[in-house]
Design brief:
HAD_sf; 6 strands; hydrolase activity; Rossmann fold; DNA polymerase, domain 1; HAD superfamily hydrolase (TIGR01509 family); 10 helices
C-alpha cells in the first residue's frame, strides 16, 4: 500500500459538531412554529439517515397522519435556515477540533500528502467549520472536497467517496478514509477504501465491523502504524 491521500468525513470526525446541528435544528423548528424537538436519543436514531434534508423527511414520515407535514420545498427552505443558524453558532466558537486532527492535517501537509473531504453535510457547513477552527477557507486545507449537495445518494451509499476519489485521481488502495459512524464506514468501504474509525458522541455505541482500525481519537499516540511510518520521521 502506498499511502498518498487522507480523506476525512466532517461531522463527528473533524469535530464534535452533531450537538450543534441538533441545536440548530431545534431552534429552527421553533422559529418555523413547529412543535418538533429532537432529543439526543431522537437524534442518535435520525443520524442513521445521511443528510439533513433527508433526516427531516425521515422524521416526519414517522409522524401521525394528522400532524403537520412539510412539502419538499418547505423542507429545503427550513434546511437552508437551519444551515445559516448552524454557521452562526459555529462562528460563536461553540466547537473545537477533535484531539489529533490539527496535528494530523499539519503533518500530512508537510509530508506532501493529498487531503480531501467526503461529507454528507453541505459546503456552507464545511466552510463554517474550517473558518472557525483554522481561520481558513476549506479549500486551503482540503483541496479536494466532495459535499452532500453534490451527490444524489448520501451515505451509506459510496457515491460521495467515489466522487472524492475521482477528483483525487487516485485508486482506493492509495488512500485512507477517516470516519466516526457506521453509515460513513459502509460508504467508504463501498468505494473500496480502508477506513479508520474514531467513534464520536453519537456513534460510540455502534459496531464498526470491517474498519481497518477503530481507535478513540486521532491523537498521535493512537495513530495506526501506516500513518506513523508515512508521516513521522522525527
Amino acid at each position: 500500500m502506498t499511502l498518498n491521500a487522507l480523506i476525512f468525513d466532517v461531522d463527528g470526525t473533524l469535530a464534535e459538531t452533531e450537538e450543534i446541528h441538533r441545536r440548530a435544528f431545534n431552534e429552527t423548528f421553533a422559529e418555523w412554529g413547529l412543535d418538533w424537538n429532537w432529543s439526543q436519543d431522537d437524534y442518535r436514531v435520525l443520524l442513521k439517515t445521511g443528510g439533513g434534508k433527508e433526516r427531516i423527511a425521515a422524521f416526519q414520515f414517522s409522524l401521525a397522519d394528522t400532524a403537520r407535514k412539510l412539502t419538499d420545498d418547505e423542507i429545503r427552505a427550513l434546511h437552508k435556515d437551519k444551515t445559516a443558524r448552524y454557521g452562526h453558532l459555529i462562528a460563536q466558537g461553540h466547537v473545537t477540533l477533535r484531539p489529533g486532527i490539527a496535528d494530523l492535517v499539519e503533518k500530512a501537509r508537510e509530508a506532501g500528502m493529498r487531503l480531501a473531504l467526503a461529507t454528507t453535510t453541505s459546503r456552507p457547513n464545511v466552510e463554517a467549520l474550517t473558518q472557525a477552527c483554522w481561520g481558513k477557507a476549506a479549500a486551503d486545507l482540503f483541496p479536494v472536497i466532495a459535499s452532500g449537495d453534490e451527490v444524489a445518494r448520501k451515505k451509506p451509499d459510496p457515491e460521495i467517496y467515489l466522487l472524492a476519489l475521482k477528483r483525487l485521481g487516485l485508486p482506493p488502495r492509495d488512500c485512507v478514509a477517516f470516519e466516526d459512524s457506521r453509515i460513513g464506514l459502509h460508504s467508504a468501504m463501498g468505494a473500496g477504501l480502508p477506513v479508520v474509525v474514531t467513534p464520536s458522541l453519537y456513534t460510540d455505541e455502534e459496531e464498526h465491523m470491517g474498519a481497518a482500525f477503530r481507535i478513540p481519537d486521532l491523537s498521535r499516540k493512537n495513530w495506526p502504524l501506516m500513518l506513523v511510518a508515512r508521516l513521522c520521521s522525527d
